[in-house]
Q: What sequence folds into this?
């Protein structure tokens, strides 16, 4: 179904997930009639999770995809429009009040403000069994989300950085045993976090090993073992496990803006202080695209809200491009600003 677009939109949200949908909710309630280019795989990483038990307001937990569907419906209720496709290119203006262009294939969408919420993806090992056993069958990319499902189980964490150590320490509260599998004897993790893992009675450090494959039981059920290869002498060994947590880093989906915006060394979009403003006027960034530390649904939703408020303030204060669709109705901008303030 094709979506009606304006000559010039007030605000286009690129990406979805908790950050994008929350930005859409707030901007739609401020009468800015946002358009969300939500991506073909709308809903972001939560579409790949099962139970979410750490999002406030769901005392019984909720399935990730259901939660995203509800976020989306809430934004839709206030008039948000959605394009369920991927943005393919962004032409971002560097002029205050300038018009930005979001490309979706051949379609060009002009807009006064853009909220970027393209998220980040956990890096994968790319070994046999990983994809098949992900999502509820034993392989996970989020210990904070899934550790509690492995009470009393034998588990591994793959990686040697701070995330691996943090995941291992968290997982050790639930699991019987946590083996941290790392490809070299030296760890990248900070000394204090490594020491904490070493001090834990049920955490083992297994080096220098890489995962060769994840194996399901004979009945094709959940994960039962990981096959490891010694990265120095090539010898193999098997670990019987029920859970494997991959913690080898994240990759922000910032490719579309890598030439236009300032990114940190790992590719995360840089914002000004405790705001969502990027270096370009009218361009805001929220969620995991800007955050390599917290990466939670609730923090992403929080920054989505901030981006909406920042965009509203910008639309209120920025000079209006004479082309702009509602340039003839400046009172509408004032109304939106007043609605945001109340
Ligand atoms: P890092 O990039 O720091 O570490 C990734 C780890 O995964 C490295 O040990 C790396 O090995 C290993 N690795 C990468 N690719 C592969 C692969 N293909 N196969 C096997 N192993 C692989 O990522 P983190 O997510 O741990 O941390 C990201 C940032 O977030 C860091 O700055 C970190 O300090 C910060 N952070 C801080 C926390 C805190 O302070 N509480 C908590 C969590 C993260 P190798 O070392 O050999 O390259």
A:
């Amino acid at each position: 179904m094709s979506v009606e677009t304006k000559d010039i939109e007030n605000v286009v949200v690129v990406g979805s997930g908790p950050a994008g949908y929350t930005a859409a909710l707030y901007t739609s309630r401020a009468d800015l009639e946002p358009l969300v280019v939500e991506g073909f795989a709308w809903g972001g990483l939560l579409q790949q999770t099962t139970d979410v038990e750490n999002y406030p307001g769901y005392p019984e937990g909720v399935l990730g995809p259901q939660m995203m569907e509800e976020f989306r419906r809430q934004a839709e209720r206030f008039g948000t429009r959605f394009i369920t496709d991927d943005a393919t290119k962004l032409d971002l203006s560097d002029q205050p009040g300038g018009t930005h262009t979001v490309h979706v294939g051949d379609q060009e969408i002009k807009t006064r403000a853009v909220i970027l919420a393209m998220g980040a993806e956990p890096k994968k090992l790319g070994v046999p069994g990983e994809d098949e056993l992900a999502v509820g069958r034993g392989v996970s990319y989020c210990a904070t989300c899934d550790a509690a499902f492995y009470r009393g189980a034998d588990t591994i964490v793959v990686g040697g950085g701070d995330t691996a150590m943090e995941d291992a320490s968290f997982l050790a509260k639930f699991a019987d045993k946590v083996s941290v599998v790392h490809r070299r004897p030296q760890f990248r993790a900070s000394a204090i976090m490594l020491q904490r893992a070493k001090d834990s009675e049920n955490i083992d450090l297994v080096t220098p090993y890489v995962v060769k494959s994840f194996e399901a039981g004979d009945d094709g059920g959940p994960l039962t073992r990981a096959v490891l290869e010694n990265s120095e002498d090539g010898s193999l060994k098997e670990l019987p496990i029920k859970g494997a947590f991959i913690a080898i880093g994240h990759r922000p989906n910032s490719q579309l803006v890598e030439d236009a915006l300032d990114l940190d060394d790992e590719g995360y979009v840089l914002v000004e202080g405790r705001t969502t403003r990027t270096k370009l006027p009218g361009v805001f960034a929220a969620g995991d695209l800007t955050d390599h530390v917290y990466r939670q649904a609730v923090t992403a939703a929080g920054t989505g809200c901030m981006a909406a408020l920042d965009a509203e303030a910008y639309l209120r204060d920025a000079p209006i491009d004479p082309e702009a669709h509602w340039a003839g109705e400046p009172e509408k901008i004032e109304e939106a600003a007043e609605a945001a303030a109340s």
